[in-house]
Amino acid sequence: MAASTKSSTDEFIKGLWKENPVFVQVLGMCPVLAVSNTAMNALAMGLATAFVLIMSNVVVSSLRSFIPKQVRIATYILIIATFVTVVDYLIQAVSLDLYKALGAFISLIVVNCLILGRAEAFASKNTVARSMMDGLGMGIGFAFALFCLGAVREILGSGSLFGAQLFHDSFQNWVVMILPSGGFFTLAAWLLLFNWLEQRKAKKNKKEKTDALSLTKETA
Amino acid sequence: MSSTELASRPAPPSAWHMYRAMVGVGVFCGLLIVSVFQVTRPIIEHNKAEALKKAIFHVLPDASTSGTYRLNDAGGFEVLEGEGVGEQLVYAGYDEKQELVGLAVQAQGMGYQDVIGLIYGYSFAEDAIVGVQVLESKETPGLGDKIETDPAFLENFERLDVSLVDDLSEMANPIVPVKHGAKTNPWEVDGITGATISSVAIAEILNRSAQYWTPRIRNHLDDFRREE
Lengths: 220, 228
Known about the structure:
B: seven-stranded antiparallel beta sheet, two-stranded parallel sheet, 5 helices, 36% helix, 23% strand
């Protein structure tokens, strides 16, 4: 991929929707499925990942002429691992309960393919400002997707959102939704929705095109 | 590969460039981690101490101040001075009149997924465990983690009998787990349906720890008294 020619607003927006890392690119599935059992955990994990993504994008892109191609992967991993360690300490300092809930998954941000993917495919070829916009968009898109999963799973699985009870006591929790299998069900439902929207849009575009074509034929 | 292709490829960077990149990034990352660690360490330690203190007052509801004691070589207890790394510690709770109300003891053991760490409050007046809080667990969300939230299960620990035999050498009845709804004696732990292994693990951790600590504590009660 060559250096991008889009405007920096487009770089930001593409990660939110059109190239959403979870719903469209299906990247970084391990934390998506594992830590999205409550809205709070999902949001915290999403924000931690976004922070690492933005910081590593900025550093990788500012060092892009300094790092020879042969050692780039090792250097990127080093940079990413550093920011993950930083996030690990910061979360411990902010809230031990949150740290307990996210558990081993914080250290696993290092091997989230989304972050290495953006460093390799984007930040290493684009300016610092663009890379930051890309990281911001992708990071927020990732956090948004995780939150979508976490909210659905918490509402159905525990009958609450951010710990606040939503339903009457007689609501029977769907325990399966907070177990790992619930992650797969919810992700499947969201992917279905995104693909359906995409197909509907494509169909509409095609129809408009054929309509326009027949119109020009008639006038001819 | 033809010779023209070889000629068109850029020359590989010198080893110096690779060293420079890797060592440079390594040093930068090392410095960053060390500085963040230095800045956050006092906050993290403060958080951990706060969490432990909160847990002590949670399992000993009547206490308003606490003191840390260590088990000494003679089998008695003395006030902890310094860090207490590797020591066997108990936390004594006192009410407003500086009267000893009970002791909080940390214990751990294997659960379903991983080690469960907990703290419990032991009250002398009641001769019972009067509160349990799980400090560390990775039990299955929605099933095993009910050991922290299930109200019927937590009711077990409002007064779980750990009374000793008359010469204070051992517990009169071991703490035993029973099936949900089958609890008849105050030393039994009513289990959770769907979280059998986790709830049995809690009972076993408590039993092992109480068997060890309660005779030692009861025989050295005077060690914990605060002078007026």
